Input
Amino acid sequence: MLSNFAASAGFEIHVASQSLFHIGDFAVTNSLFTGAISMVIMFSVFAYVVYMVKNNKYNRFIGLTQWTFEGMLGQVDSVIPDKKLARRIAPLALTIFFVMLFGYWMSVLPGLDSIFYNEVPVLRALAADLNFTFAVAIIVLLTVQYFALQAHGPIGNLKRYFRNPIKDPIGAFEGLLEFIGEFSRYAALSVRMFGNCFAGEILLVVIAVMTSYFSVVALPFFLIFELFIGFVQAYVFFILTVIFTSLAVESHGSHDEAQPNITDHSSTHATKPAVLTE
Amino acid sequence: MTGPLQQFAASTHEAGGDIFSSLGINGQMLAFQAIAFIILVFLLGKFVFPILIKAVDERQEKIDAGQRAAAAAEAKANEAQDEVAKLLKEARGEAKDIVATAKDEATAMINAGEEKAKSRADKIVADARDQLEKDVIAARKALHNDTIELVALATEKVVGKSFSEAVDKKVIASAVKEQV
Output
């Protein structure tokens, strides 16, 4: 239905990002191009912030950036009680947050689906490319497994998924679910970000087409809404990365162990936010 | 519901029947983006975040130090308040003693003053009485003399001749003595 509407309105919807030009065999897609622009903006912002912070010069923008950064760091510290581990995972989690944020916010740039190069729209947010969101999700998966291996050892980590079904049938089933969950939660993480960003872009184009000249009044509301959704999605990706790490490294204790361990386990969970499981 | 699914199936077919291709997932692009992201994490983790984390930690340290200083200041203020209360209590006690002593001294002074005034008044009264008695005696004496002179004059007039002064006095004195 949406495709029919798009076709009648004169624009096309492509789930996959499109190739703008080629460098050798490598296709530079519109999302990659826009992503590169967003990274330049992000690096410029960080360079400015770092320069100002290093020279003890502060203004409202620096204050806002530091406030956001401090809030994010505080979230990492509160979800992962081990401060050493929190500081090790923080660079990845914070990079995810800021890259996703800047990548998502590129979708509100004017010129979306109106600037073309080789009949391909030039602007497409980085987060609206499954390659990127999958790549980040895979990196998160590998990082979480790395920390889990460090915390439990190879055998201990395997025991999280594979248990003796004769001794502990419920635990074995739970482990199997956990094993499937290890893949599904990261797939969900990446598809959620992609879906939101991609749908947001389509929404903006549809609103612009439907409202025609009135779009100058209608679009700003949706742009603000998109900025908000972008922040929320970046935060969700960030916080889930931290929570998955926390879950993977926390001492579960096997189900046939003594009661005190189970009590400890539940008390650890009690401090976690409600979004622990997908 | 079948419309979008059919369209997706058609696009999948166009893309060569591969679901990943129809979603735009490309192994080469995935690897490129993953490597680019890892480099990004490294760069930000090496050059940006440590500075910001340091600033946050320093700020937190300053806040903690401020809180510690505030707690110490509060403790000192409490100590000072206790000290002030103690001093006030002592001062009040001392003031009470001073006031009591002053009252006693004032009472003693008043009493002494009263005593002094009374004794002085008594002395004045006594002196006045003495003076009065002296005056009365002097007045009597003067009256006595005047009376003798008057009697002498009267007697002269009656007798018609004068006597010597010594005789007069002798006669008059005996007359007066008789009268008295």
